[in-house]
Prior knowledge:
It is an enzyme of class 1 (oxidoreductase). Its EC number is 1.1.99.14. Its cofactor is FAD. This is Glycolate dehydrogenase. By secondary structure, this protein is an alpha+beta fold. It has two domains: 125 residues, 2-Layer Sandwich (Uridine Diphospho-n-acetylenolpyruvylglucosamine Reductase, domain 3); 191 residues, 3-Layer(aba) Sandwich (Vanillyl-alcohol Oxidase, Chain A, domain 3). It has twelve helices and 14 strands. Strand 13 and strand 14 form a beta hairpin. Helix 10 runs antiparallel to helix 11. The longest helix is centred in the last third of the chain and has 20 residues. 42% of the residues are buried.
Amino acid sequence: MLMKHMNRILELDKENLTITVQPGAITKTITDCVEKEDLFYPPDPSSMKISTIGGNLAENSGGLRGLKYGVTKDYVMALQVALPNGALIRTGGKLTKDVAGYDLTRLFVGAEGTLGVITEATLKLIPKPESQKTILALYQDIEAAGRTVSSIIAHKMIPVTLEFLDQDTLRAVEDFAHIGLPTNVKAILLIVQDGPKEIVDRDIKKIAELCRKEQAIDVQLAASDEEAQQLAAARRSALSALARLKPTTILEDATVPRSEIAAMVRAIAEVAKKYRVQISTFGHAGDGNLHPTCLTDARDHEEMKRVEEAFAEIFEKAIALGGTLTGEHGVGVTKAPYLEWKLGADGMAVMRGIKQSIDPQGIMNPGKVFAEKAKERVATEK
Length: 382
């Protein structure tokens, strides 16, 4: 359903620290609007320049700042939703506390449009952080980079951003962005901390020490806000950069507990080798959300079969490590057949019951989430 014409910012309430918007409003338009008032809307999907808040709500989108600040659902205070029967309901409100009945707001966020159409949202804002610093840690051992992630969190520091890029991704991004990224290392961690200046200075110093302790061969501090912004923009361009390399690019988002990042990175590499497919990995390592990205060619039917098998094994491994088959991109059609691996038969029965009670005719985003047969990520000629 196209909502691009319902794109207004309806209200910025500085007393209650909320902003009320229509679903077609662009995410970055919202963040820019509130930052002019020294306020902050943290969710920042890489597509924020073009993604709409309605899409963010439907997927419960994350972003680079998810480690410290959480994801979209953590900032949704109220919704207006059109139900399949034509009723228009309001959920939640500008309230810190509200336990009147089931939390219907959370029910619709992340439902991928399968329960109703969100027509308005009231979002929580917070004060804009006082300061920010960025460092880049370089590694010749991918697993050492993964261990660093766990070490930082174990030392009770929560960076705003803790991103991982492997060498293939680094090379593609540097060829795309031309900002002087190191391409002769196996992996990097892009780490950002924000908050009061004295706390940021303390945390960045300690994080740099932990990186070196975990075999980082170099730790570089961004010399200016401009350089920090370039590094963030380069990370956001990872998918676009990789997509230039092969005719077909398939992005996934297996997610594991932070303590299992190193194991998951290793598993992805082993799966790629086993199925003879090219997979580059980047993602939000701080919250365990990796993006294994397969570079392939849909015209090669035999390779596409191996790609499907590889991703099925990656999902299986993520779940075995205590994770999930999707951290922020949603289930849709391609991951629907695997959903029961995560939820179990009883969990699926509960979801079907909710769907049936709200949308008995199955008219809301039909065929999504509950599909039982696997569907190829890329349609190929038979």
